[in-house]
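Box 4.2: Ligand-aware structure prediction
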Amino acid sequence: MKRILFALTAVALIACACQKQPADPYGYTIKDNQIVYNTPARPADQQSMLGFAAEPIENVRVGLVGLGDRGTGAVWRMPYQEFATVVALCDLYPERVERAQKVLEELGAPRAIYEFSGEEGYKQLCERDDIDLVYLAVPWQLHTPIAVYAMEHGKHVAIEVPAATSIQECWDLVNTSERTRKHCMMLENCCYDFFELNCLNMIQQGLFGDIVHVEGSYCHNLDPYWDGYQGDWRMIYNRAHHGDVYPTHGIGPICQDINIHRGDKMDVLVAMDSDAFAGQAIADKRYGEGAYQYANGDHTTTMIRTRKGKTILVEHDVVTPRPYSRMYQVVGTKGFANKYPNEGLALGSEDVGKVAYDNLDAEQYMSEAERDAIMEAYKHPILADLEEVARKVGGHGGMDFIMDYRLFYCLHYGLPLDQDVYDAAEWSSLVELTEVSIKHGSMPVVMPDFTRGEWDKTDGITFAFAKAEAESEAEPAAE
Ligand SMILES: NC(=O)c1ccc[n+]([C@@H]2O[C@H](COP(=O)([O-])OP(=O)(O)OC[C@H]3O[C@@H](n4cnc5c(N)ncnc54)[C@H](O)[C@@H]3O)[C@@H](O)[C@H]2O)c1
């Protein structure tokens, strides 16, 4: 009897210990053949960042960290910004800092006051109290650690894409932004390209009817670029990971089109990849036959279904000769748009009232002239004053300039930013979620909710304007 009692007590103790085992609050469990990610409750000292606006900043003092290819491009654009000044430069290598200083000089802008270098130079930059925003263009693996450090030290952050490489990092960004009340914007420039912005405007004005399905991709043969990444960071990441490791150019604009976390939510995701035929050949050539087993499939396809019944397709391919494409396709009940390889529109909507047209037929593309006329008539409001200067300054044809402009404009006027920390987390979360789905034989993944239940509290994406706000304030209150 004693032995039975002892055995029962031992079993009870083990069961108790198992129950007490702390589950990873940001991890997942597998239930009914689905991978279900946790959404932990918001800690008491944090508040939602939906619609957050910070105090206006007269002139945004910018500290740029990472002065390789992309960061140097940002330096070339910065002096054209009317609401910002580069005051600090930081890179691993001091010679890259000096190279950036020369760019500023060449453009007639003042040299940055502060210079930092070395692996931890960014810490000194973040610790200064005369910098407002830390602008990051470092390797992916450093985005979140530096962004978190910057927010902890009272800085707003703008982070290159993807902002995070794991679900834990996505939550680190959300939690730190919510706790410190600092903006955390991912620099998703593709949301600011002309075709995408004009289509978004048409969608918001009802020309496409209800949106049913959207597509986006990053298909870009990186053969000419692999040698340029400092310390080989991109190849090291890609050869070690399955999944869509660079999803945000594809998914960003289309999430805005279907109001993700502004009325809808990405719910369930399934990813599948091909073998690494070309990827393995590239690795063999770079490092020697068989030195590495290259993980990232040549072609990764992801499908997502939203809570409101829409579907999303995302693709990633950086190793085959497939011509450059961000896909960008929008399928609505009354209209269709696609950007690659040619910009095309097909509208069957009676709402196209602003333009004279004679060949409006949703079953075929409208002529280029009609397309251009509609694009002009429905030009997105943020392009109205910016298009000309954006095309002159450039940066992927102008969209990079518009992105920077909107960031500094909103900070200057104390307005909510166009992209918030939840966009950064949701779009970047595909990096881990696609890898986990693939590793489980393309098992469906129930995605976490970074807004913690607030995904339907906002009605579509809005772009804040100082003038409109001033005008609406001046309007007499309704009786
Ligand atoms: N949005 C776009 O269109 C676009 C285009 C290209 C690159 N990117 C993104 O920009 C980022 C940088 O890419 P890149 O092509 O410029 O890479 P890169 O290798 O050319 O530049 C990275 C820079 O970071 C520096 N660096 C590394 N460790 C550092 C540290 N501890 N502190 C400070 N600096 C450090 C390196 O010395 C290098 O100069 C990546 O996230 C990439 O995905 C975005």
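In the box above, the bound molecule is nicotinamide-adenine-dinucleotide. Residues 2-20 form the longest helix (19 residues).
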